[in-house]
Amino acid sequence: MNTSRTQSPGFWGFNSLLSGAFGAALAFLLAFASPAWAASGPTTIDLNDHSTASGTDWNYASGVFTITGSTAITVTSPTAVADGTRIVIDDGVTANLTFDDVSIMIPTVTSQSPVTVSTASSTLNLTITGTLNNLVGGDGAAGISVESGATLVIGGSGTLRASGAGGGAGIGGASAGVLVTGGSCGTVTIGDSATVIASGGSGPMSISGGAGIGGGGGSMGGTGGTVTITGNANVTATGADKGAGIGGGGGGGTRANTTINTTGLVTASGGSDGNGHNGANIGDGASTGVGTDISNSVGCFVVSASVSGGNGSISPLGSWSVNRGDMSFGIQADSGYAIDKITDGSTDVTGTQAGMMVGSYALTGISANHTLVVSFVLQLSLTPSSLPNGTVGTAYSVSIAGDASGGVPPYAGFSLAAGSTLP
User: Fold this and answer.
1) Of 24, 52, 249, 413, which has the most beta carbons under 10 Å away?
2) Do residues 249 and 216 make contact, with C-beta atoms less than 8 angstroms apart?
3) d(CA 103, CA 160)
4) Averaged in consecutive runs of 10 residues, what is the pLDDT profile of the chain (423 residues)?
């Protein structure tokens, strides 16, 4: 006897409809599930641990941690990494990393960056925590390589130091190396309350130095890309060997498209080759002469300090572009010399320091350009017996330094006739 049942078409139609609806709903949930649901593997990278081959949106092989997706990943290095381990953001990826006291120092012989944001529209959103984040590039490499077409966004409240080597930028392009033109920088934005200290590396032989933030050095420097400093970020950018502080690499790299609107402090200083060829603080890298500086047009002021004629020093010595803040300078005469004059632009600001061996000068609430120049004069300690015998009326030009402890006032650059007495 045939005991098989025949279901009605209505039942099968309903069952098919139910199965179809369930399948579609399941597919929808899988397609739009949050990364947390779909995650597999750790979302923390310990740069000292090479035993784990992969995690969520990252993998490791041959010393390289490659970021392949947008999952938020925390990177740590309990001890400094100096074995060539590095991080690469894969092509076309928007990565979201948090650095918590990460220290990567690439060996000099390895021409790699600790962190590389590749081309093809890659983006790294980097949150800085802690104060011990330190990235040092290998020979010819940037501290953080941000290639043309790539984007780096730095935020958080920690401190990051990024240093290039062999002509690489602190943040930005690589050195020319065997090429003629240094690497150009992509787009760099620094915001929140992050503190960033970026230093370009000096180039070997005929290769010029890198920008602090911007292009790498070369026979022709790399271009500066686009640099924005916003929020409450504090940035110090120092170029090397003709490289700009912010802008083009040494070798004549053109300036960055620069925007500075942070409420924090920005200090930028171009590099010099010691032969009068200086990169701009903010602007172009130098080839010969001085790179064109655009500091005033981006809301910064140029402060310079120098010595006229030698015989003493002012510290710090050089040129800086700052958006605000205070600066203090120490002045020291060489042995046998005393301060003659201190000028700020066309204004004599020597005051009571004339004739002293040690002095100082302070700028507060900087809101204009300042050009400080100090000069020194030979110091003579005279007693009546030290004056030579001569014809009455013969003048002797002398300079006598003040002695604050003995209450003797300073004298500088006056004539003393033979037989005269000092008050």
Assistant:
1) 249
2) yes
3) 10
4) 41 41 47 43 92 95 97 96 96 97 93 90 96 96 95 98 96 79 94 98 84 94 97 98 96 96 98 92 94 97 97 97 97 96 97 96 97 91 49 50 42 48 47
